[in-house]
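Listing S7. Sequence submitted for prediction.
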Amino acid sequence: MSSDSTITRRCLLKNGGVSFAAFATSSLLPELAINQKAIFPPKRPEPPARKFQSAAVEAFIVETSRQITDLELAAMFTNCFPNTLDTTVEVGEFEGKPDTAVITGDIPAMWLRDSSAQVWPYLPLAAKDASLRKLLEGVIRRQTRCLLIDPYANSFMADLNAPPLEWSVKDKTEMKPGVGERKYELDSLCYPIRLAHGYWKATGDTAPFDARWKKAMQLVLQTMRVQQRKEGLGPYRFQRSAENPTDSLVNGIGNPVKPVGLIASCFRPSDDACIFPFLVPSNLFAVTSLRQLADMAATILNDDGMAAEARALAKEVETALRQYAIVDTAAGSIWAYEVDGYGGRVLMDDANVPSLLGLPYLESSPDAALYARTRSFVWSERNPWFFKGKAGEGIGGPHIGRDMIWPMSQIIFALTSNSDLEIVRTIRMLQRSSANSGFMHESYNKDDPTRFTRSWFAWANTLFGELIGKIVRTKPQLLRL
């Protein structure tokens, strides 16, 4: 083999961690560009098999990929960024208006959280593409219908007449038609507000925010108030016969809390049961979401009363967070992950979002210094769910178990980082985590990326695309080094 061929092979296969960027000025560059598809073949469905196609998204993929020197990374971006549109959306109409279901991937149901996050990276492109804007309007309208079915459900079937997910059939809770799973998670009430507010700001369109949407938002406010548990435990109950205790609630309601103004969440964004129901990152997220709702209520709905109610609840929760959710440690004060109002607290972070790590990503970090100390804690072995091994480092959680890193945590780490070195290092870990598949996964073993869970997890894929798109927009030099 010639020396040039050896360089080419090392460059493209990243043997020993060598990246293409190291050879960017080589005379081999044209040859490598020509052979890119042969070396890293596209993993997207063929155009006729794609669920939805957007001219604006396709143009963005081409424009962004051209600015990425590393051929494998460019191929991963091309596969991942459109994965939600390629594989998970079902576009239709309901009562003459756009209606879009978004399944999570290999599980045929629509999570309010996942669906909001899956389409979020497309918002900046919606103003350029009427069909994409219509799809996003359909997601908001579908989420509105779901909330009105049951504000305590975390997921719904794409067909709202279909039976629930197979593991939910025997759950001891009030299952309604169309519900996929009924694990009450506070963030499931927040994400639809985030998406609605983001859509409004990106497009200026107010069409989805009709009487039905207002009714859903009133129900969200009512549910949050009930789950402050000032006047009893509320109507929600859930129990499941399962090997993993995190799939069920103690006595059907969870551990006790003292009503101090925080909002209870029975389950985490990972769908694992909370230890203490006052889940801090979700309450911080709720403060942001409530203020966004207040803005929309006043400006779009012309309902000053609703706006005032949302602002008052946000202020009450924020005040309680300051009083009950900050914990002193040897390294300074940090946010707890969960508290109960009695003094009990859990110090950790989970991989899913909202997380303590992801607070700035959700615009829910009111104190930069407090977040910096918390970030240092959660991205270290002081966090019991942080793992570091031969294949990488990052946060996992009880949902999958020990020694399993979630690429989502690594993506959020990079999205919230101000360090070029951290960002570049994390991108390389994400490349390794792909295990030559061209996609992100739910989790992978800290020592072996070929041991992973969920080969089709659209949220992680699209979030990775969002990261690369942000870097190209703000620090393109990092993808050319």
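Caption to Listing S7: primary sequence and predicted structure tokens for the chain studied. The first strand starts at residue 89 and ends at 94. The radius of gyration is 22 Å.
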